[in-house]
Amino acid sequence: MKIKLKPLLLCLALPLLTGGLAALISRSRMDLFDTVSKPPLSPPAWLFPVAWTILYVLMGLASYRVLTATAEQQKKNSALLFYGIQLVFNFFWTIIFFNFGAYTAAFVWLIILLALIVVTTVKFSRIDKTAAYLMIPYIVWVTFAGYLNLGIALLN
Asked: CA-based angle 120:123:128, to the nearest 5?
C-alpha cells in the first residue's frame, strides 16, 4: 500500500489534537488526580500523557487504514462516523472527570465510550484487520481507565 502523506497526517492529527485540546482545557484541574483517593494499581500521573499519546497515534493509524482501504465507501463512512463519535466522547470524558469532578457521571460516560470504541473496532475489522488490531490497546486502556474511574468514584 502506497502511503498518502496528507491523509495520514490528518488522521494522526485528529486524535492528537482532540486529546491535546481536552488536556489543555483541563490542565489546571489534572493535578486533582494526585489528591483523590485511588484504587490499587493506579499508575503514576506521568504515565497518562505518554499512554494517551501512543493510543492517539495508534487510533490515527487505524483510521488512516480504514480511510484509504479499498472497501465499500458506505462501510468506510459508517466506521469513520463511529470513530468520530467515540473521539467526541473521549474528549468530553476528560472534562467531565477533571473539570467537573463528576466521577460517577464520568464512569457512565466512559462505559458509553467503551461501547463506541468496541463498535468502531468491529466496523474497522470488517474493512481492515490491522486497523482493528491497532484499536485493541485503546480498548484495554479504556477498560483499565474504567476500573480507575469507578474506584475513584467509590472512594471519593
From this structure: 110
Buried b (16+ CB within 10 A) or exposed e, 25-59: ebeeebeebeeeeeeeebeeeeebeebbeebbebb
* Grid coordinates of 39: 484504587
Cα–Cα dist 58/135, whole Å = 7
Reply yes or no on whether the pLDDT at 149 is more than 70: yes
What is the span of the domain harbouring residue 133?
5-32+46-155
Provide the pLDDT for residue 1: 65
Whether 39 is in a domain gets the answer no
Q: What is the pTM of this model?
A: 0.95
Give the position of cell 482501504. 69
Show the cell assigned to 81: 462516523
Mean pLDDT value across residues 96-111? 97
| Dihedral of alpha carbons 8, 10, 13, 18, sign | negative
Region of 142 please: left (phi>0), alpha (psi -120 to 50) or beta.
Answer: alpha
